[in-house]
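#struct-help
A.M.: can someone run this one for me? Single chain, 286 residues.
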Amino acid sequence: MRVLVIGAGGFTGSYLFSIIGRKHEAIGTSTQDKSFRKLDLAEFNETSKILKEIKPNAICLPAGITNLDYIEKNPSKSRKTNVLGTKNIADYCKENKCKLIFFSSDAIFDGNKGPYLENDAPNPASEYGRQKLEAENLVKELDDFIIIRTSSIYGWNKRKLNFVSRLIEELRNGKEVKAPIDQFYTPTYVIDLANASLKLIEKGIIGIYNISGPDFINRYDIAVNVCKIFHFEKKLIIPVKSYDLKQTAKRPKYGGLISKKAAKELGMKFKGLKEGLKGMRSMQNT
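D.P.: on it. Structure tokens below:
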């Protein structure tokens, strides 16, 4: 199977590319990493040209603009990539009988009563969430698709593109870190996410699946667990309220996802935060 990973130079995409590539022909594109062919979702004609050259059997689409505050301030520019760029990929898949695996987020929910199941009603509170939901609805029009929703992905990443890797870098440098006590998620170990994605592709499954860790926990307690596992000073973590951070985009108070459907159908047990952090620590020592 030839699987194209759009965004293979990014955080989630790099793990997808590596894990899928162990069993299938994986081809990667990126806007940042020069070891991959460049593909910018906002360049519709060039993207279509590249897809026609590669002729993939399946496309994984974790790429996109994900900075919530940037998106809130720049809705039109980010929508061109996140929504219209997704539509362009979906149009190719429809015309060429290609499976599309689209990566979405718990941000499609309002965060008032999480964690959420696949069939809970979306009600996004941020522009990022609205764009993800609009993109999801475009993907759902295909005959062969998987929408993977996830929450607060963490793991090693050179560019520090997730909360945990940024946190570790700051703590290593002895810096204080503000962490909100009123933003709850279900942190997802990126290796679990990539392995589950591969299983979904191989099983020929169609539909919406939550892939997320089992722990419902706030940002402050995530940071405290990082301190415990990596032996940093807990006093460097400063508990704050979301209001204190002056974030432009609204964050969910109670986000997160319930992944029982995926765990049952795939026969997988997704790692809790402590187990995932220990996995990170063991990788650090190899």
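A.M.: thanks! The longest helix spans residues 75-96.
D.P.: also worth noting: The chain has one domain: 2-157+187-215+255-271.
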